[in-house]
Amino acid sequence: MRTTSALLLGLLVWIGAVHAATPQHIGSWVLNCSGPSNCRLRAEKRFVDKDGITVELDVLSDGTALVPVLALRGLPTQAVMMASTMGTVEAWIQLDGGVRRALACAPNLDGYFCTPRVDAARALAAGLPMARAMTAR
């Protein structure tokens, strides 16, 4: 898995260096790069896309693996701040009807992200390349 992740990450960086501003479609994924090391891979089909607010499945590198995360973008700053002060937001990802993996949600400069932690991140990173279906909440 590490070799596959390293190769995919290397490909993402190379594609980002070659095609800095042009979104690239890779199967059902979209790769957007704004520089040689600033790339974002997201599923082409968004969960929500209404009035400038999107909920997407992104894939981020944690240094050793590619991990799926839920990304909420386009939320007003006030809504993000309220959500972060009101307590925890419950979210999870489930691959192929398997175990639900909990996500920790927090604001970020680019939006509001729900990411898996340690064991969940490892399990989701291992299962994502072969997954045929994903459920998120």
Concise overview:
With 137 residues, the chain is an alpha+beta fold. The protein has three helices and ten strands. It has helices at 2-18, 77-85, 118-127, and strands spanning 24-26, 29-33, 39-43, 48-50, 53-61, 66-73, 91-95, 100-108, 111-116, 134-136.
Question: What report would you give on this structure?
Answer:
This protein is α+β, with helices and mostly antiparallel strands and 137 residues long. 26% of the residues lie in helices and 41% in strands. Strands 1, 2, 3, 4, 5, 6, 7, 8, 9 and 10 form a ten-stranded antiparallel beta sheet that branches.
Helix-strand layout with pairing:
Layout: H1 2-18, E1 24-26, E2 29-33, E3 39-43, E4 48-50, E5 53-61, E6 66-73, H2 77-85, E7 91-95, E8 100-108, E9 111-116, H3 118-127, E10 134-136
Describe the global form.
globular
User: What are the segments in which pLDDT stays under 50 over at least 5 consecutive residues?
Assistant: 1-9, 14-20
- Please write the string of helix (H) and strand (E) elements: HEEEEEEHEEEHE
The structure class reads: alpha+beta
Please give the share of residues in helix: 25-40%
Strand content: 35-45%
DSSP summary, beta strand count: 10
Radius of gyration: 15 Å
Q: Would you tell me the overall average pLDDT? A: 81
Tally of DSSP helical segments: 3
Q: Biggest β-sheet: count, sense, barrel?
A: 10 strands, antiparallel
End-to-end separation in angstroms reads 26 Å
What are the key terms here?
137 residues, alpha+beta, 10-stranded antiparallel beta sheet, 3 helices, 26% helix, globular, disordered N terminus
